[in-house]
Amino acid sequence: MAEKTITFKETIDDSLPTPLYHQLYVLIREKIFSGIYANGSLIPTEKELEKMFDVSRITVKRALDELAKEGLVARQRGRGTTVTFNNPVSHSSGNMAGLIEDMQTIAKETTVTILEFDYVKAPPQAVDALKLDPAATVQKAVRTRHKDATPFSYVTTYLPEDIGRTFKYEELEARPILALIERAGIAIARARQTITATLADSTTASALMVNIGSPLIKVTRIVYDSNDRPVEYITIYYRPDHYQLNLDLSRIKGEQANFWSTRQ
Q1: Which of 48, 163, 183, 214 allows an S-S link to 210, with CB 3.0 to 4.6 Å?
Q2: Residues 62, 53: Cα–Cα separation, whole Å
Q3: Please, which residues bridge with residue 248 across strands?
Q4: CATH 3.30.1300.10 corresponds to the domain 89-250
Q5: Do residues 242 and 147 make contact, with C-beta atoms less than 8 angstroms apart?
Q6: CA distance to 92, 101, 188, 189, 246, per residue, from 264 (Å)
Q7: What is the pLDDT of residues 246-261, one digit of tens each?
Q8: Fold of 20-83
Q9: pLDDT, tens digit, for every residue of 8-53?
Q10: Is 114 helix (H, G, I), strand (E, B) or coil?
């Protein structure tokens, strides 16, 4: 299959305070993330980029070096610069059945590394989320999930002790935690989820192989069983360059206004 060469039409602005190399870096990076510049595509040579944007060879080289450092491109003498970025892991957010199915699919396509697995005194946020006694013990599990050896999520879960004791450390390496909870005979009914943006601290930056201060997607979720008991409290940090969340929405006609609702 012939390699595709990319043609740039965008411009950079030397009147802006942002360095020229960073403008060029961002331009190429966003095209890669959006899928316009697909994995395996060749981008123009350094000389061609110099001419296109009227910048120096040093500016172009620094922009390409930054992309290579992030693993988005590979640079080879005599062959050019090739896009090496794969499409991010994604899942659809809808009803609980769909969520569990998506988690199982992700588990099959990725690998997990368990960083911590223990029974500890419940921290305040877990006590509140799981409606526990302040002296309660919970199972705490911390893990990273990888695709093609690149970490894309840093996950911390807290489970009530009686649920946590139904499976072992080794099983968490092979199966999604929701599947293990269901295996214990717990009927999962609903979840309350919050999605926001945050910045990587020293812990998440190290685990996800990004710089401190890098943007991350933060998801917090409380999962409830059919008796409305909280059975899981989970916090996930995602690398936005390797993960995306998809929503299927339906247009609902209301009495006073129309609105969007997640499709069930």
Answers
A1: 214
A2: 14
A3: none
A4: no
A5: yes
A6: 11, 14, 16, 13, 14
A7: 767 777 876 767 777 6
A8: Arc Repressor Mutant, subunit A (1.10.10)
A9: 446 788 888 888 998 898 888 877 876 667 788 888 888 988 988 8
A10: strand
* DSSP E strand boundaries for 179-229: 188-199, 215-225
Query: For residue 243, which of 107, 90, 110 has the smallest C-alpha distance?
Result: 90
Amino acid, res. 84: T
Residue 207 one-letter amino acid: A
Closest CA to 238 of 89, 38, 28: 89
- Domain limits of the chain? 20-83, 89-250
Distance CA 33, CA 162 (A): 43
Phi, psi of 207 (to 5 degrees): -65, -35
Confidence of residue 183 (pLDDT cuts 50, 70, 90): very high
Contact 141, 135 (CB under 8 A): no
Within the chain, where are the H helices?
Answer: 20-34, 46-53, 57-69, 96-109, 124-130, 161-164, 169-174, 177-183, 202-208
Beta-bridged to residue 196, according to DSSP, are: 218
Instruction: Please report how the helices 57-69 and 20-34 are oriented relative to each other, as an axis angle in degrees rounded to 10.
Output: 40
Mean pLDDT of 114-138: 95
Cα separation, 90 vs 136, in Å, equals 35
Per the listing, tokens 């969007």 go with 260
Chain-centre distance for alpha carbon 93: 14
